[in-house]
Design a protein that fits this description.
Layout lengths: L1 H24 L8 H27 E6 L2 H13 L4 E4 L4 H4 L2 H12 L3 E5 L4 H9 L2 E4 L10 E5 L7 E8 L2 E8 L4 H19 L2
Parallel strand pairs: 2-3, 3-4
Antiparallel strand pairs: 1-7, 2-5, 5-6, 6-7
Helix pairs in contact: 1-2, 3-5, 5-6
Length: 203
């Protein structure tokens, strides 16, 4: 919120400075000319648009820093629970295997056939989820583990959202995006679908 407030103040401050400059440039005791009014109108419109875009970005993207394992598990539980479906691109599902409540939520999604998981290799939990009805895909033969982790909820709906996580030092940094709000949203969704289809095509 502080970052948004700072950006809004900077935008309004810039607009105020330009207005002051325009007024100072006009001839004393004379009204503003048509071009000066036009310039002020354009500046006002630009300021409104800039403020709207700043606020839209703030409310459609969340940036979180999670410093504890307990916090990571709680975040993942809340994120998956809020969606009717979940598509998870993970390294090993360790955060779920270590937490009975999260694992049970994944089992619930698997039983309702509303869970898709992509992993570099099989784990005990992924094997169980596949048996319960989840779509589970592995990519063990490319000799590379994709570093980005992300989870898409409600992928087939207009209000789909994606959470993209990465580790910075010992903290998990998560950015949340809603549908169409940022190129990162489309990149994550396309990567997930591409890998899923490539693996599925191999049988």
């Amino acid at each position: 919120m502080r970052k948004l407030f700072t950006r809004l103040l900077a935008t309004v401050g810039t607009f105020g400075s330009i207005i002051t400059l325009v007024i100072q440039l006009r001839q004393p005791a004379l009204p503003l000319t048509a071009w000066q009014w036009g310039l002020l109108g354009i500046l006002a419109l630009s300021t409104v648009v800039s403020l709207a875009l700043d606020m839209r970005e703030f409310f459609t993207k969340r940036h979180l820093v999670i410093a504890t394992n307990v916090g990571i598990k709680q975040y993942m539980y809340n994120w998956i629970e809020r969606g009717a479906t979940a598509a998870i691109f993970s390294r090993n599902l360790g955060w779920a295997e270590e937490d009975a409540r999260v694992a049970e939520l994944l089992r619930l999604r698997a039983r309702s056939h509303s869970l898709t998981v992509v992993l570099p290799r099989e784990t005990p939990l992924s094997r169980e989820l596949a048996r319960l009805g989840a779509e589970v895909f592995y990519y063990p033969d490319i000799n590379y583990t994709i570093r980005t982790r992300f989870t898409i909820i409600d992928a087939d709906r207009s209000d789909t959202r994606v959470a993209i996580g990465r580790f910075v030092d010992d903290d998990l940094v998560v950015d949340e995006y809603d549908s169409g709000s940022d190129p990162a949203f489309h990149l994550a969704r396309d990567l997930f679908e591409l890998v899923r289809r490539l693996i599925a095509s191999r049988g």
